[in-house]
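Recap slide: DUF7705 domain-containing protein, sequence and predicted structure.
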Amino acid sequence: MAMAQQKEECCISFVLSLVVVLLFLCNNGWFAIARADQTGYISAVGDPGMKRDSLRVAIESWNQCNEVGEEVPHMGSPRAADCFDIYQASSTQSNGKNCSLCNLLPYLLIHRVTEEDNKLGVGDPFLGLQPNALFDANLYAANKELYLGSKCQIEDSPKPWHFWMIMLKNGNMDTYAAKCPKNGYKVGPFGPDNGFPCFGEGCMNQPLIYHDYTTLQGANKTTLRGRFFGSWDLNADLSKGLVGNISYHSVTWEKEVGKGSWVFHHVLRTSTRYPWLMLYLRSDTSYGLSGGYHYPTRGMSKIIPESPNFKVRFALNVIKGGGPKSQFYLMDMGSCWKNNGQPCNGDVTSDVTRYSEMIINPNISSWCHPDHLGVCPPYHTFPNGTRVHRNDTARFPYAAYHFYCSPGNGKYLEFPYTLCDPYSNPQPQEIMQILPNPVWGEFGYPTTPGEGWIGDPRTWELDVGRLSQSLYFYQDPGTTPVRRKWLSIDLGTEIFKDPDQVAEWTVSDFDILVPKVTEKDNKLGFGDPFLGLQPNALFDANLYAANKELYLGSKCQIEDNPKPWHFWMIMLKNGNLDTYTAKCPKNGYKVGPFGPDNGFPCFGEGCMNQSLIYHYYTTLQGANSWDLNVDLSKGLVGNISYHSVTWEKEVGKGSWGFHHVLRTSTSEIIIYANISSWCHPDHLGVCPPYHTFPNGTKIFKNPDQVAEWTVNDFDILVPK
């Protein structure tokens, strides 16, 4: 701490602005990943890694514009669920004798959703159904999803969750039926339009959906298996198998009790009448709107992942690709925000669905070329922050992009542009489709065509948060950049207008990982309650900061011997003192206002303020200052204070290096190293009894100075 000769001795008490950093080191790469889940990350889904025996899974089906339109006779509304709890039978009876029946049936399944629930359709009342939805197929399906969610709900922290969602979609559209809005606005019949397949009236129908409830199977009754399956061809007789030119969908789930992950086995087949079909496995937000869906939803994500701070892990085995036009999405993300950056509110004329999709079918090539810029995003951002415009033919990675289209309600689009299909969503949409390319390698994505495709099953860990933060998405000029929160994370395929094709794949071990310490945690301020906060600290800034440090420590804690530990601490301090506010005690005793005192710098009221602190989870750099009106996006321009600490390390190699920068300003005077000594042999009163060499740089009363240094390999050694 800085020591100074003052007219009156004063011990400056202050509230630290805290930035905590957890650094976990491990030699083995795979072990580091596994340990990271136990230290730096937590799961955002209710069933981490799909390992919970008591499964929660549901299915939904959409038409071209993500609605129901009309129900299939005798099928009910196209929402259904398979949710059960599993109980282990005791091997002995209450009288102590062996239970032979229990040995034959070692487990018992209790299903929470009945066949009657799943067959509910328009006109059938149920608990919670809104009166205006009783005879409206679209609203009825939305209400039914909430009802099924209530039967499957698992209480959890920070929110309850409901089920994995299987999503089906029929790409046919009858333009003469006028069922789909155009960019959110109702339109009348039009056509013909060769862009949309349709065999005639009824082509937008929902599929047949049959359900084999999960049961215990196998010789020992320890294999759990169930499925949903069916066809869009309503006259198909599936008892005869896939005979003839018929469409088909099937998802089978299987797991050994107490072992490993659920394996979801998907099959999708197109037909002449239904050449454009989609099948995805989704983790939707458990509350609110999901990607592409303008009604309240239910899902598996109890925490909404936000760019740039989340990862997605799963195992994928592509068995059949679905043909040359199968847009198989290794990762498909959906969200919603308005063009001005505001969150969606259900207004389909101003809400915009945003999609980011990585296609891994090697048959799908880039449509983005120097002579076809209208399907390229305006710019590409490299991992180091370098931004390259699409006109820069030497540096722009055209091959990394399959297709980009702009929202139909964008007012300030950069020419040339291509508008997204205005009909295949209930509201305008923006779509970013990318392809395997070296520019995505740093995020864990495939870098060459064919990686992860047929014959190359893999377990992926994708830094989806950082990649999605780097992608271009349209926003009106001059508006505050949106916080990108992804309401739906899914994978699967869209077979695009290609009849008689089959795709087949399995997914397991799916998880979404978010930092233990979230942006919400770091932004907690007095008045915001959190676990462990003492009541007297809620509105006391000093006590609140002390309690918050303990709370952050609890989230970062590593169990160790002889004691747990928490984090390296970066400490900031503002040396200004307003003597008229009487905020600081004198040697521990409260004192009243005094001054003026030239020994303490202060530009006036508010000079003792805390610093602006902005946080990027991989670095702490830029955008940090005590000058509260500063715009650091313009760089260190003018007389402004500044602090930055950046940490960097090669995985598995060496030490973390901490790079520090500290700059003073006229209004925020702190500490400096290049001052002369007041300690002399003839002035021993200002000398300490003994000297210990310092390991840091300090600045005192010198404006507009910069200190910069690095620290690494730090350790404290004690005798064994």
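The CA atoms of residues 663 and 706 lie 4 Å apart.
The chain is about 10% helix and 25% strand.
(End of recap.)
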